[in-house]
């Protein structure tokens, strides 16, 4: 009887180390690693918007609108204009809503524009991020 319980425990441990659960864990671990890399790259782009913040702040409403139109969203991902876009978006959001988007909200908007699904905690600014995107 003791031998059959040993065989059962060996079988149980083998099945827990292989099968769909193991593949799933590896997939999500891999997905998490790539997500962190994209997040780090995106945070660099968000930080680059600070270089343009003063310029965006100095524009009047009409100039801000024209500047936004010059930055075509289709070409945005392939260009160095992401920082400028984020600075303009932050300034426009602040003027229209009296809420200045935090970096995490710009990050959310940037990832939405890239076609990613964005998960944010309650109160973290999903609505503002979505409006910017």
Question: How does this model look, in words?
Answer:
The protein is an all-alpha fold. The protein has one domain (about 1-130): Rossmann fold (3-Layer(aba) Sandwich). Helices cover about 75% and strands about 0% of the residues. The chain is built from eight helices and no strands. The protein has helices spanning about 1-15, 20-50, 50-60, 60-70, 75, 80-95, 105-115, 125-130. Helix 2 packs across helix 7 (about 105-115) and helix 4 packs antiparallel against helix 6. The protein is elongated, with a radius of gyration of 23 Å. The termini are far apart. The model is unreliable at about 5-15 (pLDDT under 50).
Entry summary:
The protein is an all-alpha fold. The protein is built from eight helices and no strands.
N-to-C SSE series?
HHHHHHHH
> Architecture, CATH level 2?
3-Layer(aba) Sandwich
By DSSP, the count of extended strands is: 0
Q: Helix content range of the residues, please?
A: over 70%
Radius of gyration: 23 Å
Record keyword descriptors for this entry:
133 residues, mainly alpha, Rossmann fold, 77% helix, elongated
Topology:
Blueprint: H1 2-17, H2 20-48, H3 50-58, H4 61-70, H5 73-76, H6 82-97, H7 103-113, H8 126-132
Helix pairs in contact: 2-6, 2-7, 3-6, 4-6, 7-8
